[in-house]
């Protein structure tokens, strides 16, 4: 097989171009990688620097805050001490004044109380004597009135009781006589029913006993007796036609 | 007529009840029918078909009358006459507490013959509730002569004696 030389040279050129391109690309890639490495290093450094800066700022801020708090505490303590002092002094004065006032008022109260007690005692004893008199009068009146009322009530009750007793007795008698009549009627009805039932039972028993006690010869005798009785009653004499008696 | 009655005497006196009379009457009808049938059948053979008692008495009758088996017309007249005589029986209806035996029926018939004469037959019915005795019906007259009736009368009339006064 023979390859065309032009084509062969074209192929060679193409391969060469491709090779050159590949080398350039590799070179460029290496360069980029170095740059990237540099950037990364720089970034790390910057980051570290920022962190350090932040830390220092924080420390500074903390220190300042502590200082401010300390100052505030000191001032507060100072204020508290001053106010405690003021309270103590005020308390002492207040207690003194209060004590004086209390003593003064207590004396006044004692005096007023004793006056009131004396007055109350005298009024009470007056009232007591007057009330005793009134109560005595009232109780006498009540006693008299009550006794009279009780007497009247007793009489009324007695009369009412007697009339009620008479009425009840009359009513009881009436009801008793009605009940007695009803009982008598019921008794007669029941006796009548019992009577009939006994009678029916007696009839039944008689029939059973007589029926069972007779034998054939007894029956024959009874039949003949019946015929004789019929003859005595002249039944067979009334004979005017033939084939009668059916 | 009197002679005929004498001829019939045995058969007449053997009939005690309406049931027997009806039975003999139907046998007579059978005999009369057979006398003039087209089938060759002698009276002798026909007499073997009825009850032996009836057959014997009819043979006696024929003998007394001097008739032979071939005298069909005379025999027929004799039998018809007998049947007519049977109709003249007087019936005494008795309702009894028991179904009477042959002996009791015989004794009753004897009493009737002795006390009332011949020509009576009994029409017997049964009712156990009567207890004993009889209800006698004859010629339209009804008479209750049973123990049941007697007991009823006693219980009704002697009620106060039998049952004590419950009011006391």
Keywords:
heterodimer, A: mainly alpha, B: 168 residues, four-stranded mixed β-sheet, 8 helices, 4 strands, 15% strand
Topology:
The complex is a heterodimer of chains A (246) and B (168).
Chain A: H1 5-213, H2 216-232
Chain B: H1 2-14, H2 18-35, H3 43-47, H4 52-65, H5 72-86, E1 90-96, H6 102-115, E2 120-126, E3 133-138, E4 141-146, H7 147-157, H8 159-162
Parallel strand pairs in B: 1-2
Antiparallel strand pairs in B: 1-3, 3-4
Note the total helix count of chain A: 2
| Rg over alpha carbons of chain B | 23 Å
Q: The biggest beta sheet of chain A, please? A: none
Shape of chain B: elongated
Distance between the termini of chain B: 75 Å
Structural class call of chain B reads alpha+beta
Largest interface here, residues on each chain?
A-B, 38 and 47 residues
Largest sheet descriptor of chain B: 4 strands, mixed
Amino- and carboxy-terminal Cα gap of chain A: 163 Å
Secondary structure tally: strands of chain B: 4
> In percent, how helical is the residue content of chain B?
55-70%
Tell me the structural class of chain A. mainly alpha
Number of strands of chain A: 0
Secondary-structure element pattern of chain A, one letter each: HH
How much is the average pLDDT of chain A?
88
What would you note in describing this structure?
The complex is a heterodimer of chains A (246) and B (168). Chain A is mainly α and 246 residues long. Chain A is built from 2 helices and no strands. Chain A has helices spanning 5-213, 216-232. The longest helix of chain A is centred in the middle third of the chain and has 209 residues, at 5-213. With 168 residues, chain B is of the alpha+beta class. In chain B, strands 2-1-3-4 form a 4-stranded mixed beta sheet. In chain B, helix 1 runs antiparallel to helix 4 (52-65), helix 1 packs across helix 5 (72-86) and helix 2 (18-35) runs antiparallel to helix 5. Chain B is elongated, with a radius of gyration of 23 Å. The N and C termini of chain B lie far apart (75 Å). The mean pLDDT of chain B is 85. Chain A binds chain B through residues 191, 194-195, 198-199, 202-203, 206-207, 210-211, 214, 216, 218-220, 222-231, 233, 235-236, 238-246, and chain B through 18, 87-94, 96-98, 100-101, 104, 107-108, 111-112, 115-116, 123, 128-129, 131-134, 136-141, 143, 145-148, 151-152, 155, 159, 162-163, 166-167.
